[in-house]
């Protein structure tokens, strides 16, 4: 909850302390040859992974800034990357419709598993123990149960841009290009609630649950951060300040504070004033 990392079109990854008065990064990581699309931090915070339009997944050592591995295999841009719970496996999702699993402990740079059921770009991935959840532009939310060796699918019917797990691991939050965020039961796929009011018809935007699973948060193409009550579905806050679409956000693990990143090139720290 102290530091954050950002990546963008300039191919750099920057480490920030958003609570410092100086708006300068603490450290810079360079190695990507094209736009950085996603960053995932490993358990323990000593390393992180990144991916992007150069079709690669990079593994980084935080203190030295050194690239420890470069994983290649995707044939088009890599949209998302995530770690499993113990940081031993990295899962990447690409525009090439594939999801690839990589063993962080092996010296073999080939993926240990390739999941290729999607018929369009896989935009997002989330991991819970032995399950991998993916969102795709083909409108399908997929669950790969690696322990049971089976895949299940829930067809939403509109392009999906992000999937996130609730902290109790019972629900999935899914963003889509119909300006709707859906809360689904992880076990059954049942629609539990929907959240509307923001704008999302053309851009990949991030959604998330707050630290206590009480609030739903999302960026918007109108440059605002939106906050809803999880249970009632009411919009509780609309935080304006960016001059471009709010593409990414991350929630503090202990309090209702949110970091947002926008196409205007700015990162902002928010403490949303939610209505009772």
From TrEMBL:
Main localization of the protein described in the UniProt heading: cytoplasm
Similarity annotation: Belongs to the WD repeat MORG1 family.
Protein name: Anaphase-promoting complex subunit 4 WD40 domain-containing protein
Subcellular location: Cytoplasm
InterPro entries: WD40/YVTN_repeat-like_dom_sf (IPR015943), WD40_PAC1 (IPR020472), WD40_repeat_CS (IPR019775), WD40_repeat_dom_sf (IPR036322), WD40_rpt (IPR001680), WD_repeat_MORG1 (IPR051980)
Residue ranges of WD repeats: 29-70, 71-112, 195-238, 239-270
Organism: Coccolithus braarudii
GO process annotations (BP): mRNA splicing, via spliceosome
Pfam hit, one: WD40
Domain of life where this protein originates: Eukaryota
GO cellular component terms, semicolon-separated: catalytic step 2 spliceosome; cytoplasm
Keywords: Cytoplasm, Repeat, WD repeat
């Amino acid at each position: 909850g102290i530091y954050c990392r950002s990546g963008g079109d300039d191919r750099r990854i920057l480490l920030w302390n958003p609570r410092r008065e100086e708006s300068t990064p603490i450290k810079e990581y360079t190695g990507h040859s094209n736009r950085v699309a996603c960053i995932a931090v490993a358990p323990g915070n000593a390393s992180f992974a990144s991916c992007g339009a150069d079709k690669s997944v990079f593994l980084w050592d935080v203190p030295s800034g050194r690239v420890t591995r470069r994983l290649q295999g995707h044939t088009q841009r890599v949209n998302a990357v995530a770690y499993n719970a113990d940081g031993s496996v990295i899962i990447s999702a690409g525009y090439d419709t594939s999801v690839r699993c990589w063993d962080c402990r092996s010296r073999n740079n080939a993926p240990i598993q390739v999941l290729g059921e999607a018929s369009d770009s896989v935009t997002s991935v989330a991991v819970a123990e032995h399950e991998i959840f993916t969102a795709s532009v083909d409108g399908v939310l997929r669950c790969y149960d690696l322990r049971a060796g089976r895949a299940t699918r829930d067809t939403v019917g509109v392009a999906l841009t992000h999937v996130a797990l609730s902290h109790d691991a019972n629900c999935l939050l899914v963003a889509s290009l119909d300006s709707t965020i859906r809360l689904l039961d992880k076990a059954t796929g049942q629609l539990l609630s929907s959240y509307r009011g923001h704008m999302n018809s053309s851009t990949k935007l991030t959604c998330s649950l707050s630290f206590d699973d009480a609030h739903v948060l999302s960026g918007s193409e109108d440059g605002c951060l939106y906050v809803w009550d999880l249970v009632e579905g009411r919009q509780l806050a609309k935080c304006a300040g960016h001059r471009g679409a709010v593409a990414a956000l991350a929630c503090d693990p202990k309090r209702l504070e949110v970091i947002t990143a926008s196409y205007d090139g700015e990162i902002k720290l928010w403490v949303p004033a939610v209505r009772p």
